[in-house]
Amino acid sequence: MAGLVDGLDVASLGEMKVALDVGMAPDRISFAGPGKRPPELAAAIAAGITLNLESFNETERVARLSQEQGQPARVAVRVNPDFELKTAGMKMGGGPKPFGVDAEQVPALLRRIGELDLAFQGFHIFSGSQNLRAAAIVEAQDRTFELALRLAADAPGPVRSLNIGGGFGIPYFPGDAPLDLEPIAANLERWLPVVKDRLPQARVVLELGRYLVGEAGVYVAEVVDRKISRGQVFLITNGGLHHHLAASGNFGQVIRKNYPVAVGNRMNRAERETVTVVGPLCTPLDILAERMELPKADVGDLIVVFQSGAYGLSASPTGFLSHPPCAEVLV
Ligand SMILES: Cc1ncc(COP(=O)(O)O)c(C=O)c1O
Question: What is the C-alpha separation between 260 and 10, in angstroms, rounded?
Answer without folding.
Answer: 28
